[in-house]
Write the structure tokens for this entry.
Amino acid sequence: MTPRRNERALVRPHVVTGGRARPSRNVFDVVTLVLATGDLPRTGLTPEKVQIVELCLGGALSVAEISGHLGLPVGITRVLLSDLVDSGHLTTRAGAPAAPAPKVRLLQEVLDGLRARL
Amino acid sequence: MDSALASEPPPYLPDTVRTSVKILIVGHFAVGKTTYIGTLSEIRPLRTEERMTQAGAAVDDLAGIKDKTTTTVAMDFGRLTLTDDIVLYLFGTPGQERFSRLWDDLARGALGALILVDTARLDRSFAAMDVVEKQGLPYAVAVNHFDGSPSFPEDEVREALDLAPGTPLVTCDARDRRSSTEALISLVDHLLTLDTEQP
Ligand SMILES: Nc1nc2c(ncn2[C@@H]2O[C@H](COP(=O)(O)OP(=O)(O)O)[C@@H](O)[C@H]2O)c(=O)[nH]1
Ligand SMILES: [Mg+2]
């Protein structure tokens, strides 16, 4: 239950992101769902980006899960994801902030989903 | 087995899931957050790390991070696929003011927060409650019952925590799935009431 610190997290973040500390777009919530678009060539990508694309080829995962699986801080993961969306390797499926209007419906569905687990 | 680069493929979400929501599980150290998330999560709980400056800014907000002193804040989280369409993520986080930038980020778009408290150390929960209230996040309070912790009458706990009359106060056992699910249900039921009441 105590996840081991892994080596990836020890890579200096500014090396991984090529010196940038800010994502090129600000659409990534921790629960934004991300998946790979398909078979764009991965040549020229950094090893971390290749890992992300390969991880995301199998299906959708949240930004937090990608960060957790790769052992990279969320902030750094966002920068890399942002680049990979720009380059067409990744796409997003759903973000967090729910529009106010359908919020009641969404909450009702969440509630029903939880009750069904009892 | 906990290596982030585990060779087994990660559990991907079903293709039908289009909506992701999050709820924060907040409380002081050792109140039971990790246990709670582990009990409810359908995936092996994961941990993400965020690097913060001493001023409490996340590294992705900085132009340069080279020579700043950073600390690492760990958050664990779990996942529950609730319906064909909806996945719920639970994020466990200590309610600490000095991490307020991280908080802004986590709290933005969150449905609400479940604050875990221990009756043996109620005063240690005040900081967490302050942070949640400052974020304007609606919340419910769950007393995570530890053996040996005193059990106070509900109104005494309410008074000690200065809870608004409508705020749910429930008891749970973070090791028990049913009891933990019920605490989440109380929270979401409360959120629904709040949203339905608003014009
Ligand atoms: N008796 C009892 N022990 C618990 C309960 N929840 C957590 N614990 C124990 O309390 C300790 C701290 O819990 P943990 O989940 O790590 O707390 P965190 O620091 O808030 O994540 C662990 O040893 C748990 O096994 C509970 O509901 N009842
Ligand atoms: Mg913990």
Summary: Residues 1-6, 61-67 of chain B have pLDDT under 50 and may be disordered.
